[in-house]
Design goal:
By secondary structure, the protein is α+β, with helices and mostly antiparallel strands. The protein has two helices and ten strands. β4 (33-37) and β5 (41-44) form a beta hairpin. It is globular. Residues 4-109 form the HTH LytTR-type domain.
Amino acid sequence: MNYIIIQKEKEIFKLNIKDIYYIQTHPSKAHTVQIFTKEASFDLFQNLSKLEKQYGETLTRCHRNCLVNLERVKSMELQSKTLFLGEEGRYAVQYSRRRYREIRQKWLKEGE
């Protein structure tokens, strides 16, 4: 499955998985995630674990509350444990120390 269908009020969006920078749990809405792309952000009533199972080949868990598209990662800051995504590091996402090796290994293989 290469798309996520998102309904926002009276509009429906068909969002390509490869266009997603990252997905994180919503800070104030229970059972909701925020999806960030170059153009916009969307709220989706969904579980992060289910999204990880469905789209695990494209999205990688970098923290307990976040999935990241490694194709969009431009750099990694080791000291602050931060991934920078998009043009000129527009988005910054924290990664956990525990997931560092997996993220680094997958990210470096993306460039091969």
